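Regression test case RT-17, inverse folding.

Input:
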């Protein structure tokens, strides 16, 4: 089966089957296009599968677009929290402020407010309290794949070396960190992130401490486990967990959430966030054919996925 079976709409090939490519493919199909997704890796081996994943605009720019894309995604993920199969839940939590300024994106989250003293971890001077979607990627990505399949998106397991090799009236390039080299763009870079997942002692809140003196630190409970992070090392390409890094990050997370002390380690992972000075989302021509680029989402690919997919659908046109 392929997407070239006639019918209305354009024939669109999405290169990349992480959270960004799959969301674009689903929305393109829903807009009436005959859509294929070409992906080099199974979904469980993508960077997307490593994400914590909390709605939070981390390491992505430009700010205005990020807030706009983030707001669309916030609404979409909030709606998905009504479907237990999606793996999305709405969860309260605290963003810790170590500096003078509150978190820059707080105004984008309805109901956000200053944290009270009893909502702050020991030693934290201030914080913002809000309810945001927490996305269990181990459940959400297979759910997204199934949504694509049942909508009629055709999956292909294939590594693309040249965009000229893929079929379609329009190509959508959403291959994360691997996107730039396919269009001669060398501005992308990895932002390595390590996590360790502990048994969940029954936590009800997430906590995010980007300004921690020891490095970005977060705790995201998911019921069956708690994602503890993290790191953000620009330019590092390794994907093997480092025991020294793990010891340090566990020290920071237990300092924030003492209930984690002694919780067994279940799994560990390292992912390479697709860093770029700004997210690339535009339409160009390559070999006489439109290419819509959608990559470079840094630490916010889940947070921006639905908003970016809406812009991709608009740029593909009809
Ligand atoms: C530790 C960690 C924690 C994170 N936490 C969060 C969080 O809390 N919230 C949040 O919003 N984001 C978070 N992120 C960031 C998020 O994971 C990324 O922004 C997001 O996964 C990027 O998605 P993507 O689809 O662009 O890329 P990827 O998930 O990397 O997918 C790329 C796809 O392209 C395919 N591909 C690559 N090369 C080719 C090729 N040549 N041909 C065909 N296919 C190809 C791959 O197989 C894959 O399917 C986190 C990341 C890390 C590492």
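Golden output:
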């Amino acid at each position: 089966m392929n997407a070239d079976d006639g019918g209305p709409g354009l024939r669109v090939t999405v290169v990349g089957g992480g959270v960004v490519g799959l969301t674009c493919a689903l929305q393109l199909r829903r807009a009436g296009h005959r859509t294929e997704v070409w992906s080099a890796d199974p979904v469980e081996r993508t960077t997307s599968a490593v994400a914590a994943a909390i709605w939070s605009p981390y390491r992505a720019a430009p700010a205005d677009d990020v807030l706009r894309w983030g707001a669309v995604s916030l609404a979409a993920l909030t709606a998905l929290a009504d479907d237990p199969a999606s793996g999305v839940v709405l969860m309260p939590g605290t963003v810790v402020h170590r500096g003078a300024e509150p978190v820059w994106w707080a105004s984008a989250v309805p109901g956000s407010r200053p944290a009270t003293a009893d909502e702050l971890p020991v030693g934290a001077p201030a914080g913002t309290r809000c309810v945001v979607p927490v996305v269990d990627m181990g459940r959400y990505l297979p759910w997204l794949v199934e949504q694509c399949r049942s909508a009629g998106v055709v999956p292909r397991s294939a590594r693309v070396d040249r965009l000229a090799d893929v079929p379609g009236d329009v190509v959508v390039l959403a291959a994360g960190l691997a996107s730039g080299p396919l269009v001669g763009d060398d501005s992308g870079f990895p932002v390595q992130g390590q996590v360790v997942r502990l048994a969940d002692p029954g936590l009800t809140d997430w906590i995010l401490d980007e300004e921690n003196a020891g490095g970005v630190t977060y705790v995201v409970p998911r019921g069956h486990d708690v994602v503890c992070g993290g790191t953000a090392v620009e330019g590092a390409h390794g994907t093997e967990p480092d025991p020294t890094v793990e010891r340090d990050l566990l020290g920071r997370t237990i300092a924030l959430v003492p209930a984690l002390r002694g919780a067994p380690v279940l799994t560990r992972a390292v992912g390479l966030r697709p860093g770029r000075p700004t997210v690339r989302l535009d339409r160009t021509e390559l070999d006489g054919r439109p290419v819509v680029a959608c990559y470079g989402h840094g630490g916010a690919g889940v947070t921006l996925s639905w908003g970016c997919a809406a812009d991709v659908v608009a740029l593909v046109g009809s």
